[in-house]
Predict the structure of 2-isopropylmalate synthase.
Amino acid sequence: MSEKIIIFDTTLRDGDQSLDASLNIKDKLTIALALEKLKVDIIEAGFPISSPGDFEAVQLISNRIKNSKVCALARAVPKDIEVAAKALYSAENKRIHTFISTSDIHIKEKLKSSFEKIEETAVRAIKLARNFTDDVEFSCEDAGRTSLDNLCRIVEKAIHAGASTINIADTVGYTLPNEFQNIISSLFLKVPNIHKAIISVHCHDDLGLSVANSISAVQAGARQVECTINGIGERAGNCALEEVVMAIKARAKDLKVHTDLNFKEITKTSQLVSQLCNMPIQPNKAIVGENAFSHSSGIHQDGILKNKKTYEIITPESIGLLDKSLNLTSRSGRAAIKERIASMGYEDSDYNLDNLYESFLKLADKKGKVYDYDLEALIYFTNTKDND
Ligand code: KIV
Ligand code: ZN
């Protein structure tokens, strides 16, 4: 039996907090609508207490999103929780996500507190959040560096206080996959009421291990994965949604789990987030990088021509990637341009091929490869010139 993994997207919260300038409200809504189309289960829309803009964005997204649950972040502080609840007021399905640090280093150096006080604060916060919704997530910040005894203690108390999701955060991306798996397995062994909650994981990528750690956690019983589009997030980023969901899909038989994502929306969503966040995608990035499905060596090309499965473990079509095996350069003819534009959803009547081709050649001479977004711009500019 395959069990479902809940996909919790935090592009608009953890992702946004890593940008030089926060996304504007219109762009946040555009991303939320794309995430809904991608069928993510939960959209963490923001941290309402952090700024009026974040509050407004969570409010707007709560109004507009119908098919994904909308979540807002709050520290384990009464004001944060009340403001998060207010921002989420009109959401059809909502979650309050409250968190506090549990590691010794954070408790002593950052919070100047004691573990006992942290436990009390967490319990009070969860109980308060439950007054606004039955769906409360509690996160142990820096769980990856928290002693196992303390982690088990606070998780049991959080479940007892009413948290239905417990999130184990590897906030600084420190753990190794076998260690992180061991943390999750130990919770299942040692926390008496663990089965009353969904165990979630939230991994950062400081050592490039966030996806591996998330998959290891799933193998140990975690059933929610927190991630962001293109892996954007604090410092080196978060677990990349497209990577973790495609790893689950490609290895579903072995992992015995699945997600309900609309995989064909992955490419579009990735490009949208990259453009709106002004965060280019490295060419060799897994799944959504420019080179992820291009084959260069003669031996590989020979294999691909005989049977694509020789060097492709997932198909580009499965993530909604149009056939990019034809590079558009100054050597390309009109037929190739026309075919690519049609595959982008344009009708022949939407542009003038002769004018566009002339501009295309000038651009291709200057920059070499011409991409879909260049074609979009050329269509726009040649049409505007025609209308002048
Ligand atoms: O990395 C982290 O610990 C977080 C928490 C708010 C879950 O982002
Ligand atoms: Zn985080």
